[in-house]
Design brief:
295 residues; alpha+beta; 2 domains; 5-stranded antiparallel β-sheet; signal
Length: 295
């Protein structure tokens, strides 16, 4: 027996917030469903980098950021459009690590683009997410089931005017809502190493959608775990428009129930949940749902 409830979802810049879910408990017709609270977010606005000496006067001497450089940023800082933070030693506490650096194309059809224009900022937004999968290893689904997220930065207008044309892709990890996790150890290929990847997986402190639910890394105390991904990319049709809540909310029921059954100790008595994106989250790039089960 499966009941359904719906949650209104709101997208916050890097948080994982919920749009809705269905859940079930096979073998117990009286079991209550509860919605989950997740989705994804994954972008950050451009920001500058300090030069190699740590100076923030990059307009006078703009420097290209270094790959594998580390930064100790707070959650609010990664939401800001610019940052004057300089790199720190990667052996020290840090929350952001550069995994790729590229060059912006600021001339289109013979016209010079402003570095803060939509067209210029779209370039790292298109390139950085795919490069994160290459850096962390594993599959796209492994990344979606992790607490890792890409953020990207580009020069300030002043730095651009002085000749800077780089963009920088950083990886961060969400320890819990609005809190970044310290990055430790070798991250290259970590999602392809199952034992190490587990600590970075998405878990919950309660059943998703419950009042006391909080999304946490699986290295923290938890009682629910994200099991698998339901890819909804084809549900939007040729124009990619949001297919509607009825369509996305029903797309994963069978898949999630099967995944939970396979993971359960008793295939006749188990609980499961399914999350789907809201229209706002869909527009922000969340084109998948998550299957959940008790840990």
């Amino acid at each position: 027996m499966t009941a359904r409830r719906r949650l209104a979802g709101a997208l916050a810049a890097l948080a994982l917030l919920g749009a809705g879910c269905s859940s079930g408990d096979d073998g117990d017709p009286a079991a209550q469903d509860s919605p989950s609270a997740s989705a994804s977010a994954s972008s950050a606005a451009p920001s500058p980098s300090a030069d190699a000496s740590g100076s923030t006067d990059a307009a006078a001497a703009p420097a290209v950021p270094r790959e594998r450089a580390c930064y100790d940023l707070g959650y609010d800082a990664v939401l800001e459009p610019t940052s004057q933070a300089g790199p720190v030693a990667c052996s020290a506490t840090h929350t952001s690590r550069t995994y790729a650096v590229g060059e912006l194309d600021l001339v289109v059809d013979g016209h010079l683009l402003a570095v803060d224009s939509v067209a210029a900022q779209a370039q790292p937004a298109e390139r950085c997410p795919g490069r994160l999968t290459e850096f962390l290893g594993g599959t796209t689904d492994d990344l979606r089931l992790s607490v890792f997220r890409p953020v990207w930065y580009s020069p300030t207008v002043e730095q651009s005017d002085a000749g800077a044309d780089w963009f920088r892709c950083d990886v961060i990890a969400l320890a819990r809502d609005e809190e970044l996790a310290p990055l430790a150890g070798r991250l290259e290929g970590v999602l392809a190493r199952p034992d190490e990847a587990e600590r970075w997986r998405v878990c919950g402190t309660a059943e998703p959608g419950a009042d006391d639910f909080e999304r946490v890394a699986c290295s923290e105390e938890h009682s629910w775990r994200a099991l698998s991904v339901v890819d909804l990319a084809d549900a939007g049709g040729d124009d990619g428009a949001y297919p509607g809540e009825d369509a996305v909310s029903s797309a994963g029921d069978g898949t999630c129930e099967d995944a939970a059954r396979d993971a359960a100790a008793d295939p006749l008595n188990f609980r499961w949940g399914y999350e789907w994106p809201s229209a706002e989250q869909w527009e922000a790039g969340q084109r998948y749902g998550l299957c959940w089960a008790p840990a």
